[in-house]
Amino acid sequence: MKVVPMKRNRWMMCSQKMNRAGHGKSKGMRARWLSAVAVIFCAAWGQRVEAADAAVFSAGAAKVAITPSMGMPIVGNWTRPTVSNIHDDLHVRCLALHDGKTTIAFAICDSVGIPREVYDAARKFIDAETDVPSANVLMSATHTHSGVSAGGSREVDGVLVLSPYQTLVARRIADGVGQAIARMQPARIGWGGVEEASEVHNRRWYVKDARLLSNPFGGVDQVRMNPPAGSSTLIEPAGPIDPEVSFLSVQTLDGKPLALLANYSLHYVGGVPAGDVSADYFGAFAEKIGKHLGVDPADQSQENTPFLGILTNGTSGDINNIPFKDGGPKHAPYEKIEQVSELIAKRVATAYQSITHHDWVPLTAASEELVLQMRKPDPEMLRYFASLQDEGRDPASIHRLSKNYAKRVQSLAEGPESTTVLLQAFGIGDLGVTAIPFEVFVETGLDLKERNPFADSFTIELANGSYGYLPTPRQHKLGGYETWMGTNRVQLDASERISEVLLSLLNKMSQK
Ligand SMILES: [Zn+2]
What DSSP designation does 213 have? Predict the structure, then answer.
């Protein structure tokens, strides 16, 4: 069905009449039902109605909680305190978009990272329970460092069995997506971006002090992750930053904000006391942005659908919130989360005033599987780890993480030869959104923005899986934590292979 945008004005008159008639329908049927009824109504008025005229843009949003129980271990740091306080709830925040023909959806989860099997389980629910193909749903983790593990599946008699928390997350992703689809109503859509460089800092640095550069493999790196802030040893960062806060907004036909999904390349903020569960600044931004857009929390007129804010993680594998050069002031718990989320929300709200909301744009979704080889230790590395057991060896000569990495390398040696990752792209008008299941380095994100055939674009990391860090080949040569075998697990040119697949998907989509 070819859509003819020029005829939309006449169509909008019809579709607005239909809005109220759509109440009470559920599960994504409403948009198509609206289209069908509208065609009949318009035809009844004696107008020449083509199939193209039935293209109504609609959107719906929903959030559901995935807050873990007290006593579960909190992951994302070197130690694992158990949950002793729930500061703020963790959620799956969902946005569904429909162009009259194609539906796409986002499901953004407050988690440090979610393995593919959880998303695959959610996809089964979505395929069984909605009319939207799960291949059109982009699922990702925000990378809050104050949640619990979404891992823990195990094989029983050749069948993969999810942990109770994994099952909860899969179920709730499907619940959130289903609810967002059910809430879809005629909507307008717009997008834009604004720069805020003050909160993003490349965390990999060249340093003068060689003691800061030793690695767990008995070697010396060229750069250091998270060097001591404010120290005279700092020379310069080893990579760039991406200052852009990108955002996608949907409004009701009369201009009331329905949802806003933003994207910023910042690993997380932190400053959360040990034992606290928190969605970090991702949750704080999501809760603040509505107020800055002028949403009245008491206004329930939007078909009983409150406004929903969402913040996705961009390409932030090597970016954090520490101003390394001077270290910055000390902060009370949650103070920095509050400051950063408030600043980013204000910046987005200002930029929001100057973007165009369209009555209709085309939606496209594409995905492709890519096989990546797993890294394997060479004999020299295995000999080095074996030598750590030598009697008489001075313990001070051993890197504090060598034992940890000996285990990680061993599990890679014994593990599979390859892994298959899911890469995904959305076209939303002339906005291209790409999704990568790693902690992606910022230069990969900047390169994708540069070479993207769509006029505007952004990348969501830790989407559709969680496979560790994804340094570029250039950064692999420099060494440092993110490049260490065991932190990084896939072939050294994986970032380039992934970008090529995504650009080829985008090129095909943009030509349609
Ligand atoms: Zn992290």
Answer: G
Ramachandran category for residue 271: left, alpha or beta (phi over 0 → left; psi -120 to 50 → alpha): left
E strand or H helix at 40, and its extent?
helix 29-44
What secondary structure does DSSP assign to 289-349, as a single string?
A: HHHHTT--TT--TTTT---EEEEEE-S-TTEES--TTT------TTHHHHHHHHHHHHHHH
d(CA 388, CA 395): 9
CA 142–ligand 1 middle distance (angstroms): 10
Distance 76 CA to ligand 1 centre (A): 6
Residue type, 33: W
Edge to edge, what strands does the sheet with 456-461 contain? 363-373, 418-428, 431-436, 456-461
Provide the pLDDT for residue 49: 35
Q: Domain segments of the chain: what residues?
A: 1-56, 57-198+238-372+417-511, 375-414
In angstroms, the Cα distances linking 96 to 52, 109, 202, 236, 322 are: 21, 15, 33, 42, 35
> In angstroms, what is the span from residue 439 Cα to ligand 1's centroid?
8
Residue partners of 442: CB distance under 8 A and separation at least 6: 202, 239, 240, 241, 242, 265, 314, 315, 316, 317, 318, 319
What pLDDT, on the 0 to 100 scale, is given for residue 79?
A: 84
Show the tokens assigned to 1: 């069905």
**CA 432 – ligand 1 centroid, Å:** 26
Ligand 1 centroid to Cα of residue 98, in Å, is 33
Residue bearing tokens 């400051």: 339
320 Cα: distance to centroid of ligand 1 (angstroms):
9
- Rounded Cα gap, residues 107 and 200, in angstroms: 25
Q: What is the tens place of the pLDDT at every residue in 179-197?
A: 999 999 999 999 999 999 9
Q: How far is CA 456 from its chain centroid? A: 17
pLDDT tens by residue, 269-327: 999 999 999 999 999 999 999 999 999 877 655 555 689 999 999 999 999 999 999 98
Q: Residue 135 pLDDT > 50, yes or no?
A: yes
CB 7 within 8 A of CB 52: yes
Residue 189: in which H helix or E strand, if any?
Answer: strand 185-195
